[in-house]
Amino acid sequence: MSTAISAHDVAKRYGEVHAVDGAEIEVDGGEFFGVLGPNGAGKTTLLEILEGIRQADRGAISVLGRSPWPRNPELLRRVGVQLQASAFFDRLTAREQLRTFAELYGVGRARADAQLETVGLTDKADTRVEQLSGGQAQRLSIACALVHDPELVFLDEPTAALDPQARRNLWDLLREINTEGRTIVLTTHHMDEAESLCDRVAVMDAGKILTVGSPAALIRQLDLPQQIIVDRRLLDGDAVVSVPGVDSVAADGDSVVLTTRTPAQAISALAGLGALDGVQIRNGTLEDVFLQLTGREYRA
Amino acid sequence: MSGLRSLLVAMWTGFRRDRSALFFTVFFPLMFLVIFGALFRGNPAAKVKLAVVGSDQPALLERAVTQPGFDQVVTIVRADTLESARRRVADGDADALVTQDGNRIAVEYSAASQTTAGMARGVVEQIVQAANLAASGAPPTYTVTERQIEDASLKPIQYLTPGLLGWAIASSGIFGASATLVVWRTKGLLRRLRLSPVRLGDIFGARIVLSLLISLIQMALFLTVATIPFFGLKLVKSWWMAVPVMLAGTLAFLAIGALIGGVAKTQESAQAMAQLVVMPMAFLGGSFFPLDKSPSWMQVVSRAFPLRYLNEGMLDVLGRGKGPTAVVPDLLILLAISVVLGALALRVFRWEK
Ligand SMILES: Nc1ncnc2c1ncn2[C@@H]1O[C@H](COP(=O)(O)OP(=O)(O)OP(=O)(O)O)[C@@H](O)[C@H]1O
Ligand SMILES: [Mg+2]
Fold this sequence. Notes:
- The complex is a heterodimer of chains A (300) and B (353).
- Helices cover 32% and strands 28% of the residues of chain A.
- The longest helix of chain A is centred in the middle third of the chain and has 16 residues, at 164-179.
- In chain A, the strands form three sheets. In chain A, strands 5-6-7-3-8-9 form a six-stranded mixed beta sheet, with helices on both faces.
- Chain A is α/β, with parallel strands linked by helices and 300 residues long.
- In chain B, α1 (2-16) crosses α8 (200-226) and α9 (242-263) packs parallel to α13 (328-348).
- The longest helix of chain B is centred in the middle third of the chain and has 31 residues, at 156-186.
- Chain B contains 13 helices and four strands.
- In chain B, α3 links the parallel β1 (48-53) and β2 (74-79).
- Chain B starts with a helix and ends in a 5-residue tail after the last helix.
- Chain B is elongated, with a radius of gyration of 29 Å.
- A four-stranded mixed beta sheet of chain B has the order 2-1-3-4, sandwiched between helices.
- Chain B has helices spanning 2-16, 19-39, 59-65, 82-91, 114-136, 156-186, 189-194, 200-226, 242-263, 267-284, 296-301, 306-318, 328-348; strands at residues 48-53, 74-79, 96-101, 104-109.
- Chain B has two domains: 48-148, 3-Layer(aba) Sandwich (D-Maltodextrin-Binding Protein, domain 2), CATH 3.40.190; 157-348, no CATH class.
- Chains A and B meet through α2 and α3 of A and α1 and α7 of B.
- Adenosine-5'-triphosphate is lined by residues 14, 17, 19, 37, 39-45, 84 of chain A.
């Protein structure tokens, strides 16, 4: 598979802030790639450098085999971008916006109208952008990014303002586009989203890429114990001590949470105690990876 | 090309739906034309109103009224009694009272209005002289033939139309272009467009075509209003040469607007800068009063403003009735200004905040 993006030692500074600080990224063609990181980590800055609207202070960058800087209209034809902040033409309806963007790429109206349908905005086609809700505007912005069938798509927090239904719909749409062989790079603060969509993710903080890998591999690397969550009423206080292989026990409302590195052993013991009704087993998640890497404290 | 077209359609649609822009670029200047045009219309040649008393009308006047052309100069105001006739003169309803006693014609007028009284006296004297001449039976020694010659002094509508139109075109060009650039930049639309394959030339090109269209609409409206008989502008000879001058002027103002749009950081500052350029330029460039009648320092200063060349060029063909080549110098100057300032505007252009 060809390389869609390769970026080495990319850096961008704003005064004293090292927004991107020696980032390395390789994205294969057809890959679904996620960039995770707390607010201010430098995700948007990195994406905008790859998109070609920011000039890096240093670094070797190649996007679809070309340099994104200086502006290269031929490259831009093959790339679709949804910026974190949407921007539209004043006083135009959703349909008119999309048709305008489509025509900039030489794409016809029929395709534009179909794209409106794809993001579920057909009933808002004649509404002016100023009157769209935040999530509707975001969907329109995504539609504008996809209208010309780009080979490579950059999406900066595409699901940030979407309701759960619209989020799932967008996931389906993005998976479909990805299956067609298009490369997608997205940033998100939703770990479940990254886990469910991305082939690989990069975790970023303070301008640096801390780790890159498939979500499953990153979770495995973390080597976290598993948690078995049992209904408290089924496991009276003393019985819990008799379960073998349990490292720690914690009460959590109606549940008891057992942490173990030998789940098979623990579960068969729980079965013996008749405590398996409604049992939940929680493996490590990407969220654990994220928190582990970027620090447990919430940082704005 | 498709980039230019799609941006043009988007801009045009946005402009059409922008009520305040429509008001300020189209109706506001037109309103000025209507108001000033009506104010400075000047009185149509007023008739002399002569009061006479009932049936006791002076026979001399009676005969004169039947002569062709007389009714265009004189209106007869009839009163029942001498007193009421005098009152009408005193009230200004009539300019003079004419009575005849045998061969004596008496004219009474009010001192309040010297001009109309003079006119009334003149008319009556003329009638009397003509009657004397006719009574002598001799053919007239001297005759008068009339021909109207071109009036060197401009009628108000003749300088108001090009002047106010020039001002309207300067405002919409400068405000329009600067607003497009600043709003698109501050709203992030320029950076979004930067991610599309559209060329910078298409963005500028679309704005230029839009402005030329708006200017043509403004001009059509202005000329339509100015030529209705009430305002009385007559399109003569090479009036159509005002169109290329006007288009060249639009380009020059667009360049100024684009320059402001490149420098200004916010919409407010862009508006303030545009206002700072447009208002003095309109006053000193001869939009509101003719430069011919202005002090000489102003005629010199006016040369610094592109609007002067637009106003003078349009005035030559819309007001002074000059031939098509009269506007060529103005046209060339405007095009030169457009090229120089346009190149500068491209240099200061920024995609990002
Ligand atoms: N135009 C700018 N001028 C100055 N500093 C900037 C600019 N853009 C971003 N920064 C700084 O660079 C850092 C990285 O910002 P960036 O927008 O890339 O973060 P992010 O990871 O996208 O955050 P978020 O999750 O909130 O979108 C931040 O500290 C931010 O304050
Ligand atoms: Mg961001």
